[in-house]
Design brief:
Number of helices: 7
Structural class: alpha/beta
Number of strands: 8
Strand content: 15-25%
Largest sheet: 5 strands, mixed, barrel
Shape: globular
Helix content: 25-40%
Length: 217
């Protein structure tokens, strides 16, 4: 179980869903019906520094001491056989500063499989980068044991847990994979697929958040 899990005797606070890009924000907003949808949606901007600043500011606000934080958006898959539209659930996020263990990854993966039937859900380590990863660098990151890479998740979760214990998670939709790199034809089709998947999985985020009320085994 994640070190970020801890004792939830008081129950979880609000759910903060953090994404980087306007298109990711648009997908998540289009999934909401009515008011906020039971979460706070934060667009951080692109890159680890932007994510760190935005998440830090959001968690400085009153009432966020117990907030659960979920990083989401698009990513690059590192494992051959991955496809655009596949989902990645982080068991941990990594960057040069720290490895952060995620909370309830198995339950989250199960909820995502129900929310997006027919989509493959991969679980494993999600690594951070400060630039778009291509070619040989993809294989080098795969050799470290990571299954996917993005620019904000590790920074988001590191910032979220730096000030204390809170539940954290990261869910990414693959838009770029070893056999489907962004520079190739098919990128637009892969992007549309990833957008639709991200729009579909918001209910799974809420299911994960509600599960934090349950006693830990």
């Amino acid at each position: 179980m994640s070190a970020a899990g801890g004792d939830r005797a008081r129950g979880p606070g609000p759910l903060l869903v953090a994404c980087a890009l306007r298109i990711e924000q648009a997908a998540l907003r289009s999934a909401c019906r009515g008011p906020a949808g039971g979460h706070v949606l934060l667009r951080t901007g692109m890159g680890p520094r932007a994510a760190e600043r935005a998440v830090g500011r959001a968690l400085d606000r009153p009432g966020t001491d117990l907030a659960a934080v979920l990083a989401t958006g698009f990513c690059a898959g590192l494992v051959p056989g991955m496809h655009p539209g596949d989902l990645v659930v982080a068991e941990e996020t990594r960057d040069p500063r720290a490895t952060v263990a995620c909370t309830g990854s198995t339950l989250l993966a199960e909820a995502l499989a129900r929310a997006a039937p027919g989509r493959t859900v991969h679980t494993g380590a999600l690594t951070g980068s400060d630039h778009v990863v291509r070619g040989q660098e993809r294989a080098q990151l795969r050799a470290t044991g990571a299954i996917a890479v993005d620019m904000e998740s590790a920074a988001t979760l590191w910032t979220a847990t730096r000030g204390g214990d809170r539940p954290v998670a990261a869910v990414r939709v693959i838009v770029d994979a070893p056999e489907h790199e962004l520079v190739r034809i098919g990128t637009v089709r892969g992007g549309i697929s990833a957008f639709r998947v991200l729009r579909a999985v918001l209910p799974a985020f809420h299911e994960w958040h509600r599960s934090l009320l349950l006693p830990r085994r």
